[in-house]
Design a protein that fits this description.
Layout (H helix, E strand, L loop, with lengths): L1 H17 L13 H16 L8 H25 L2 E8 L2 E4 L5 E6 L6 E2 L4 E5 L2 H58 L4 H32 L7 H19 L1 E3 L4 E4 L8 E2 L6 E5 L4 E7 L11 E6 L7 E8 L9 E2 L2 E2 L13 E8 L13 E6 L7 H16 L4
Antiparallel strand pairs: 1-10, 1-16, 2-9, 3-5, 3-8, 4-7, 5-6, 7-9, 10-15, 11-12, 11-16, 12-15, 13-14
Helix pairs in contact: 1-2, 4-5, 4-6
Length: about 400
Amino acid sequence: MSRLQAVQSTGAALEDDRTAPETGQAGPPATVADAATMPAATAPEAAAPKRKRPPAKAIARILVVFLLLLLGWYVATDRLAPSSSSGAVNAFTTQVSPRVAGVVTEVLVADNQEVKAGDTLFILDPRPFDLAVLQAEANLAQANQGVDASTAALSSSQARVTQAEAALENTRASVARTKSLVERGVAAQAMADKASAELKSAEASLAAARADLSAALLKAGGKGVNNPQIQLAQVQLEQAELNRTFATVTAPTDGVITNLRLAVGQFINAGSPALTFIGSERPWIMVDMRENQLANVQPGADASILFDGQPGKIFKGRVQGIAWGIDPGRTSANGLPQNQASTRWFEPARTMPVHVELVDDDWPANVRVGSKVNVVVYAGGQSNPIAWIASGLQHVASYFSFLY
């Protein structure tokens, strides 16, 4: 019976080969041996599973959902918990400059040295200032002598006025006697005319003496410290002494000397920066945020701070204020603003500085001026899921600070 089935299968195979539409040609004739082995060869092929195509639609749906979630997170954080990694530590920095010009003779501080208010930083050559003080003292003495001479001249002018007044009185009496004699016919009229001329001369002499007295009074200007010449010389002396004290430059407050480039023998002009001084007043943080991040940010909002110099630690902060303006960098020519040419498809968003202060009393020791800071501002408060997630991500980022 099995032989009969094999022969029938062989006949069916020969018929299929003759009518195969794919090749259009008849295959080689099948033999009984081929028929015997055919079921064994086709059995594994029938049992093999079909290969499935990649689920492209499912992957596309996942990507779309992911992008929508990312966009929603981006918008939500900008409104409720804006953050930025472009923050930096700031402090009061001063370029210390001498008030007078001179040559540096001593530098009494080192780079990165802490100083107290009033500590001497460097000294200029004091000899020119000592000479200026001596010259001012000599001018004051000369002014006093001039005032004394003016006082003596004033006394002389006063004496001449007194003498002229006495001469005028004598001349008036003589004129009266002469006129009486002329009226009685004892003396000639010529004597009366001469007496009148002498009277006019005496009056003129008195007027001249009084004018000299007024000039002497103006020249003298007053007595003692009220004299303008003495006051001027005294002010010049005080200025010279003050310049001598300016030759010694001291620290304005407690702080640190940094970026020291001052050397002995260097000439410094008045007002020229000599060294950099960082005050010890409490530093603060300035972080740049995009304008669309500031929609809900208000002074007093809570913030969390991550310093690169303190990895693994989050500090509490508070928004102190938001800058009211920045310089957009727009130039002008001939009194007119110039166009700002741009070849970008999208104009980059502008950022505004936000002033953030540390709430903790102790400032981190390893955080210095210019250190990088990451700040998250809880504009919508800290009791919402967005704030929780943003805080968690910042904590995760704090541990990555150990690596870079």
